[in-house]
Design goal:
This protein is mostly beta strands. The protein contains no helices and 11 strands. Helices cover about 0% and strands about 60% of the residues.
């Protein structure tokens, strides 16, 4: 089993920045891709960004150029630096990872951007 614990969410003004962290523990051997989804009220969960063990990244078009995902394999931790936040970024952010073909999720952290 892999446990994921997120931190770093909160309330920020439009144009501000936040950095989310997600630490994996438990059976972290062979943890693969890590990343972040988000879900806003009344909307489907959407992929925000992902990163492979080798560092290859993928971003949703809506966050490209504003968000930067990174990971520390030694700490089994994934980060997302979120800059130039706007009201459309308000959502619960969930980190995830894969291990041996199974997907694991964190509990979610709320990000609220006030205009």
């Amino acid at each position: 089993q892999v446990q994921l614990v997120e931190s770093g969410g909160g309330l920020v003004q439009s144009g501000g920045s936040l950095r989310l962290s997600c630490a994996a523990s438990g059976g972290t051997f062979s943890v693969g891709d890590m990343g972040w989804y988000r879900q806003a009220p009344g909307k489907q969960r959407e992929l925000v960004a992902s990163i492979g063990r080798g560092g290859n990244t993928h971003y949703a078009g809506s966050v490209q150029g504003r968000f930067t995902i990174s990971r520390d394999n030694a700490k089994n931790t994934v980060y997302v630096q979120m800059n130039s936040l706007n009201a459309d970024d308000t959502a619960v952010y969930y980190c995830y990872t894969y291990r041996l073909g199974r997907q694991y999720w964190g509990q979610g952290t709320q990000v609220t951007v006030s205009s």
